[in-house]
Input
Amino acid sequence: MTRPLLVEVIAWLPGRGVKPHDHQTWGIVVGLDGEETNINWLRRDDGSKPGFADLTIGHEVNVGPGDTAVFMPNDIHSVRNDGETTTLSLHVYRKSLAHTDRSEFDPDQKTVKPCPKRERKAA
Ligand SMILES: [Fe+2]
Output
């Protein structure tokens, strides 16, 4: 079953962000206000050992107003707000993230585990 697009605006307070993760769907992020640092990670292992992932930083991209970042399903990234003001960015994903089996990574511990499932409840 094809799930609908997910469109959302995400705000990061100064000093906040999100650990490395994938999306298991394509997505595009457009900066609206402030500047986020997107860190793109490369996986060095072959994914054959459950729970193990060896990541290294590929490159960093600053996403400010009007800038874009594009992700394919297996791309791994993390986000930081290193600025002094809250950032805003528009996110569009092909599938609702409540219906994808995403993973989150800990580069220091070299681990990977399922992301907690998002739940959307009717108002
Ligand atoms: Fe993300």
The mean pLDDT is 93.
